[in-house]
Amino acid sequence: METLTDDLERRAWDLIQEVEERGGAVAAIESGFVQEQIAESAYAWEVDVASGERTVVGVNKYRTDGGASVPIMRLNEDAIRRQIARVVAYRERQGRERVADVLGRVERVARGSDNLLPVMKDALLAGATLGEICGRLRGVWGEYRLGG
């Protein structure tokens, strides 16, 4: 057990050192190094599962013949309508002008270097939704795409 722990510690330290040599965590992410390491690790895991080297109960060992019957969840249309009505009522109660103003502040701060948390908190307290805030951030920074 001690040997396994020592090996894990050594490999983790080697990886940390490599990230540092690449200029730190942000530089390693921006260069694609971190994503590459994750992809390689995931691939090695899948190869081990496919070969039987790694056991995953229910996937490559101890599977049931015919599979388990899983009931299909039916959407409750009435609950969906009620939730939509709650969101519409919520937005009607908000001061949309105030929300628009604070969302503009979120966008301006995102374009700069100030701390976003206070203005994001203001936006939430004004009644902005998380989706609206994230939409403004995506408008400034774009949306992350692996390998892009």
What attributes characterize this protein structure?
0% strand; 148 residues; 68% helix; single chain; 7 helices; mainly alpha; flat
Largest sheet: none
Q: What's the shape?
A: flat
The percentage of residues in β strands lies in under 5%
Provide the number of structural domains.
2
What letter string, H or E per element, gives the SSE order?
A: HHHHHHH
Outline the low-pLDDT stretches: none
List how many beta strands DSSP finds.
Answer: 0
Structural classification = mainly alpha
Rg measurement, Å? 24 Å
| Terminal CA distance | 41 Å
- Mean pLDDT comes to 91
Work out the helicity level: 55-70%
* Tally of helical segments: 7
GO molecular function, one term: methylmalonyl-CoA mutase activity
Protein name: Methylmalonyl-CoA mutase, large subunit (Fragment, part 2)
Organism: Nitrolancea hollandica Lb
EC number: 5.4.99.2
Protein architecture, described:
With 148 residues, this protein is mainly α. The protein folds into two domains: 7-51; 77-141. The protein is 68% helix and 0% strand. The protein has seven helices and no strands. Helix 5 (96-111) runs antiparallel to helix 6. The longest helix has 20 residues, at 2-21. It is flat and about 60 Å long. The mean pLDDT is 91. InterPro entries: Cbl-dep_enz_cat, MeMalonylCoA_mutase_a/b_cat. Its EC number is 5.4.99.2. This is Methylmalonyl-CoA mutase, large subunit (Fragment, part 2).
